[in-house]
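Incident log, structure service

09:12 report received: a user says their structure output differs between two submissions of the same chain.
09:20 pulled the input from the user's history:
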Amino acid sequence: MVRMSKVLNDRFGPVALILILVTVISFLTRLVLLVISWPGVDANPFYLLGIFLVGLFFDLVVGLFTAIPVTIYCWLMKDSWYKTRLGGIPLFILIFIIIFTLVVNAVGEIIFWKEFNVRYNFIAVDYLVYTQEVLGNIWESYNIPLIGAGIMFVVTIIIFFIRKKILASQQCTMRFGKRTVYFLGIMSTTAIGYFFVSNHYKNISRNNYVNELAGNGIYEFGAAFWNNEINYSNFYLVNEDKNNISILRKMLQQTNSVYVDSGLNVDRKITPENMPHKWNVVLISVESLSGDYLKYFGSNQNITPFLDSLIPNSIFFKNFYATGTRTVRGLEALSLAIPPTPGQSIVRRPNNENMFTMGSVLKEKGYDVKFIYGGNSFFDNMGYFFSNNDYQVLDKADIPQKNIHHETVWGVADEDAFTILLQEADKNYKDGKLFFSHLMTVSNHRPYTYPEGRIDIEPRHHLTEGAVKYTDWAINDFILRAKQRPWFDSTLFVIVADHCSKSAGKTDLPVNRYHIPCFIYNEVLVNPKIENRLVSQIDLAPMILGMLNTNYTSRFLGKDIYQTDSSSDRVFISTYEDLGYLKMDSLVILGPKKKSSLYRVDYVSAAVTKLDGNTNLLNEAIAWYNGTSYLIKNGHYKK
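09:34 re-ran on a clean worker, output below:
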């Protein structure tokens, strides 16, 4: 204790104070997150101990980085200035800013964890770009004045208790040479933390909650910031391009397709037996619609009454899986029919113009192609991507204020977006033009508010269940209004989720967190059935085009399941760095540092059992992900 007191009273005592504060605040944050996540945590005593010991290691690394401004100040300031009252003011200001940031971060981590069940990741990095939407969402969802007052109170209390230690450091005389030695020692240790520490060190268990809790949110944010795009070939298992493409060609072969040449591509001519149908297509991608919201999959909340009623009257895909955990990943799969690749969705990457999309195929066939979004399409680069890939984009700015019944920072109520879709479809019908309209809903999103009087859950409660039920109501309302239109009987209605509402689980890739509903509906055009085959989001576009009997040259990596046998059925699930390949009951996970693992998986519980290697399955997984990256890199996915 005497030694610690001496350190704290030293010239660089404020640096030690920062380290202590970071570790204490991080410990308390970790404890809160552990309590929140307790039902999903592996309570093995060694793992619980590891959470806090490994966590302490990351906290100290973060503490060193956090203390850099104070370290520099303590080093550069001459004694004659540092020991004065004026010399202490900048030091107090620096420490106040650091403590304020730490406390705000702790609150932010808890909020983020409650939303995503993980530490900060690339989603948090993305939110830096869209501060207006994110801050607006936080303001609408939480009592910010109360939280802000609480934060200021905590910061003030901390400053009050450490003020004497800060003042004591001002009384310590230290020559510049000695200060330089201290400075170099601290900065060298910090540099080691930067160059030789990896966020993968936190992965001490097969339980994802344990691994996330062992990390540090600030460190994870930095890691995500620097690794937002990942080069597949540098970090993942690879095979020869020729072998990869050969496997893809075999698995993509359809009864109605012929490959155009023998090159390193998957270009194939799709030639249906029958004449093309002159049908319109309305594709509704629903925000965060998990499969387990539906009564069919066991829910007893009755929050999707219309969608549940639609099951007997549509093609309902019982085993349908999203490729990722974010809207842009879902939009990528639905428009490009392509497996996920490491890092960002293609929707947000540079050089994503003039790509081979469902919109480009239908536009070439004379369709009017639109992407409709009730929010600001600048968000997540949606507007740029779709407008540069043969879609006309309509968003909140195109909806007159008088027609808006309710709006949040994310956009207008879903019913208002559906209204503009109806208006555009009416224009197309009047002009004698077929149309393909892809609408992305927004209401099932924090703060979970919507117009009054629509459903039996009042919006003032800000409940997820209310937002889900309102979106279900809005889809029903849209279908009822569409039934009054002359174009209804010649229009396919496709309803599918972009991703599940939650993505975290006990494993890195919990299969049940990717299970989403999908419907293809029109009682005149579609023979209802429950489809039991395993289907990926990337298969939807080829299936729709197959139902239209569209003749085209395909570059899609999805397939029409009705033109292939079930032996090639597979789905793709991913985070921004883990890539899952699921076939029958086996899951291959490819990870950075050329890692791979194989599990037997339970689709309902997402429980996994480690298996010995299966070379054929591993080669298939590599072929899909390595092959996809090759095709993108070499421009084969351009039109």
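09:41 both user submissions now match this output. Likely a transient worker issue. Closing.
09:42 reviewer note: The chain has 22 helices and 18 strands. The chain has a mean pLDDT of 92.
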